[in-house]
């Protein structure tokens, strides 16, 4: 399952959620303001910054503020 680390006020997060929904890509949303461990993960892959959206894939890899095209390409490489 794809995990999106987000905040309620993040416009980029809302846009990516809409694009994932439109493409039929399933994901779980985790609010880093409500989950300290999630915030720690986001900081660990973003040089200490709480940059959202950050996506974590099943293989443990992550993308920060990706386009829907980048997400689809990464998902394809994981299933290839």
From TrEMBL:
It comes from the Bacteria. Keywords: Oxidoreductase. Residues 3-59 form the Glutaredoxin domain. Gene3D superfamilies: Glutaredoxin. The keyword Oxidoreductase applies. GO terms for molecular function: electron transfer activity; oxidoreductase activity. SUPFAM superfamilies: Thioredoxin-like. It holds the Pfam family Glutaredoxin. Its EC number is 1.20.4.3. It is an enzyme of class 1 (oxidoreductase). InterPro entries: GlrX_actino, Glutaredoxin, Grx-like_ET, Thioredoxin-like_sf, Thioredoxin_CS. GO terms for biological process: cell redox homeostasis. NCBIfam families: GlrX_actino (TIGR02200). This is Mycoredoxin. It comes from Micromonospora jinlongensis.
